[in-house]
Design a protein that fits this description.
It contains 7 helices and no strands. With 126 residues, it is mainly alpha-helical. The protein has one domain. The protein is elongated, with a radius of gyration of 16 Å. It starts with a helix and ends with a helix.
Length: 126
């Protein structure tokens, strides 16, 4: 590989991460409004919490994870804790800490999985 090719790849990845961060911040401000009206049972598990969670929140988490790579873990932990989504906190933080998983929208896939498979997914994820 030439130096120019590596530079181009680096610029592309940096640009994608910057765009992802901007989208994450836009989604964050949209989600904050919706979450103030949300009422999640205090003892809800991962799947039940995802059923109550809007798609914009899981998209925010995935964009933030892609934009900040491993640095997204503490931000994800604090944000989900403050929003009262403790059931999602551990899963999202663990996924953010795993190297090379940032390109996979794990929370979004879990959100769709819960809607498609319902409580059967509880046995796999919890």
């Amino acid at each position: 590989m030439s130096v120019d090719m590596l530079r181009d790849i680096g610029l592309f990845v940096f640009g994608a991460m910057a765009i992802s961060f901007i989208l994450a911040m836009i989604l964050f401000f949209l989600v904050i409004r919706r979450l103030k009206r949300m009422d999640i049972p205090p003892n809800a598990g991962f799947s039940e919490t995802l059923l109550y969670t809007p798609l914009l929140l899981v998209l925010f988490i995935d964009f933030l994870d892609f934009a900040l790579d491993i640095l997204a873990a503490p931000f994800t932990w604090v944000i989900l804790d403050r929003l009262g989504l403790k059931a999602l906190r551990g899963f999202a933080t663990f996924e953010a800490l795993l190297p090379f998983t940032q390109i996979v929208p794990t929370m979004t896939l879990a959100w769709f999985g819960v809607r498609l498979f319902g409580s059967r997914l509880d046995m796999v994820l919890e």
